[in-house]
Write a structure and sequence with these properties.
The protein is an alpha/beta fold. Helices cover 52% and strands 15% of the residues. A hairpin with a 2-residue loop joins β5 and β6.
Length: 300
């Protein structure tokens, strides 16, 4: 089966969007997003989405302006509406993470029903390793989903090799972006390529693991909802009922309590509180404490 047919089938099976929905394609000019652009354009009648394109210039490199101009020209050649936005991002710590958040905000502001990105199988594996190195729990290291919160990933089951092969076969022009190479994600990409020498087909295997973990996370979230209903009391958690839960569930309930109160989650602090549930300070002035038999979040 061709990559076009596989992607079209994936769109329909995973219900990435409905006929008539406005679909914003995030296109950087790299090979992944350019292949996504051409496949979605060629299969538009079959998937029924109304396509628009958005390209973002982070202004990290002199070539970025030219690349964005090319994306706009190519989009218009295909008869698609194209949006081009230049960001002003101050230099400093967490530059690439801040750039990612600004890019996401820009894409949402286009106002489409769904945003399609060029994430593929290797990105899935990369994300798992990236979050694992940051000490994420099960929810963090589980896989990117085909569609979630207005974002979709039509190429998620495709390998980098299949994407490159299609681009070369169809003579699709793209640009290489070296700006991510010094970042943590860039280094993980190098690590992933080296893993194949240790264990063949490592990227599909890691991506498959991420998918399996996602199913486990979904199941645990359902159990957490049930435990929350048992423990929820007057805006907090009943200490007596909470104490009866398994340790792993106690920690998940504390995380959910933070989310409900818009408090920052710090796993090490929550673990300490679980062992000695009296009082613990969270960032930004939030406190986790036990008062009159309730576990509460307060801000001072």
């Amino acid at each position: 089966m061709s990559i076009q047919k596989r992607v079209l089938q994936f769109i329909k099976n995973e219900k990435l969007w409905s006929t008539g929905d406005r679909v914003c394609i995030a296109v950087s000019g790299g090979v992944d997003s350019m292949v996504l652009l051409h496949i979605l354009h060629r299969t538009q009648r079959a998937h029924g989405g109304i396509l628009e394109v958005c390209t973002v210039n982070h202004q990290f490199r002199n070539e970025s302006k030219e690349e964005c101009s090319f994306v706009v020209q190519e989009s218009k050649r295909l008869g698609l509406i194209a949006h081009s936005v230049a960001l002003e991002i101050q230099k400093g710590g967490n530059l690439y993470e801040r750039a990612r958040k600004e890019r996401q905000k820009t894409l949402k502001n286009v106002g489409c029903d769904v945003i399609a990105t060029g994430h593929h199988q290797a990105d899935q594996a990369e994300t798992l390793l990236y979050r694992l190195l940051r000490g994420s729990g099960l929810d963090g290291i589980s896989s990117m989903k085909p569609v979630q919160n207005g974002w979709c990933r039509p190429l998620l089951n495709e390998s980098k090799e299949a994407i490159l092969s299609f681009a070369q076969q169809e003579k699709i022009q793209w640009f290489n972006d070296p700006s991510n190479a010094p970042s943590m994600r860039g280094k993980i990409r190098i690590l992933l390529s080296d893993l194949d020498s240790i264990h063949g087909a490592s990227i599909p295997a890691i991506a498959r693991t991420a998918s399996l973990l996602s199913e486990d996370a979904t199941l645990l979230n359902e159990y957490t909802k049930a435990a929350w209903e048992r423990c929820d009391k007057r805006g907090g958690l009943c200490m007596q009922t909470w104490n009866q839960e398994p340790q792993g569930m106690q920690l998940r309930l504390l995380k959910k309590l933070c989310i409900e109160n818009q408090a920052p989650i710090r796993a090490n602090i929550l673990q300490q509180f679980r062992k000695k549930p009296i009082r613990a300070q969270l960032p930004r002035g939030f406190w986790l404490l036990c008062e009159d038999g309730l576990i509460l979040i307060q801000r001072h």
